[in-house]
Design a protein that fits this description.
The chain is mostly beta strands and 150 residues long. Helix content is 7%, strand content 37%. The mean pLDDT is 94. It binds cytidine-5'-triphosphate and zinc ion. Zinc ion binds at residues 107, 109, 112, 114, 135, 137-138, 140.
Length: 150
Amino acid sequence: MEKHLKVSAIKDGTVIDHIPTKALFKVIKILKLEDCSQMVTFGNNLDSRAMGTKAIIKIANRYFADDEVNRIALVAPNAKLNTIRDYEVVEKRVVEIPKNIKGIVHCFNPKCITNAESIITRFEVLSDKPIELKCFYCEKITGENEMLFF
Ligand code: CTP
Ligand code: ZN
């Protein structure tokens, strides 16, 4: 039996669970949690029955819109969002890879204009398993293993 939670329960806010351990700091960056003034707690390399190990992030008093959290699907496709109100889980959501991605990832093509000038990258998601992103500017495909995050 678990004696206590590895990362303390929160009263109100959002718990992002089932994050792959390697994606924890990318998720923090994508959601701009560096700039968050609310209490943010996280744990990494926690035991998980489903994943072996996992990471978790808890953000007090913050709630996220679907399009905000769907941005993390590129790195944490199985993440689960739990909305907490007065210590209770009142909603569970899964993340979905959006059809279009703006920013977040660099274009893999070194000759792409987005790598030469300060233009925000834009991609169409051709496939989500494995991830294939087609650049709006140069039409080259950035694959899952080539994704480099801003
Ligand atoms: N949690 C929290 N603070 C609360 C309530 C829940 O931090 N006041 C966290 C739990 O520690 C857990 C997550 O929110 O990591 C989801 O809670 P719960 O649904 O109770 O857990 P599980 O059933 O294990 O979730 P899952 O659906 O992911 O299996
Ligand atoms: Zn490009």
